[in-house]
């Protein structure tokens, strides 16, 4: 074993997966610098954080105990003790998967080509597990109710979120819902201004700060429409207008691959919404899915 390899093995493992890692990834953009120091300490040496008191973490971060507690609360935990309980579970899982995590840790220009599929697919599996642990089920139920009961639905997504928006709108149409998802941003804005309190808008955005998406969402919100947001961050301009917030992000896997992992996360959450809506109105959904099967057959050679 080389000295470089021994140094890597003996260094404390960083926090890459699990509920705490996902919460930090989703919430760090809304943290003040002093709170960021706290979460960075947790990420860099989670084992030490697990055995530390609030005051010890505050001392190492050079901040107040109240800042440590507020940082935990901003990430969605009741306090530092609640975060430590989640951290203990995450570390146990990470220890079981240590070898796989180390193999999939870095993806870059020097990654052997034959290694890329295994590393990417392994990280995809990790992302799915994290979403299952961190998805806000109350927000999910609220989103299902808003979309299922809506008279009509506007689906908005621009940039890298455009394709998922178009796909989801199409799939909702196969369930018999009245859905619009114009790719043109002017059309998005115009339709949003015509929505009412019986309607809903589903906005998909990685950053939650895409101007064109926000313009449509703000217009729909002002008209009383229910807003469901699928995004990667707990706090952003988009989340301020969301009645039901579904946070689905993914870790940065290196080589600027965060957008790829978050896209996969958002698609997974959209799948859960599709299934939930279908099961909420089974008879009508079955009728339209049967009709879709007939249409598909007519267009098949």
From TrEMBL:
Residues 18-94 form the HTH rpiR-type domain. The lineage of its organism: Bacteria, Bacillati, Actinomycetota, Actinomycetes, Kitasatosporales. It comes from Streptomyces endocoffeicus. Coiled coil: none annotated. Keywords: DNA-binding, Transcription, Transcription regulation. Residues 94-115 are annotated as: Disordered. This is MurR/RpiR family transcriptional regulator. It comes from the Bacteria. InterPro entries: Homeodomain-like_sf, HTH_RpiR, RpiR-like, RpiR-like_SIS, SIS_dom, SIS_dom_sf, WH-like_DNA-bd_sf. The keyword DNA-binding applies. Residues 143-283 form the SIS domain. The keyword DNA-binding applies.
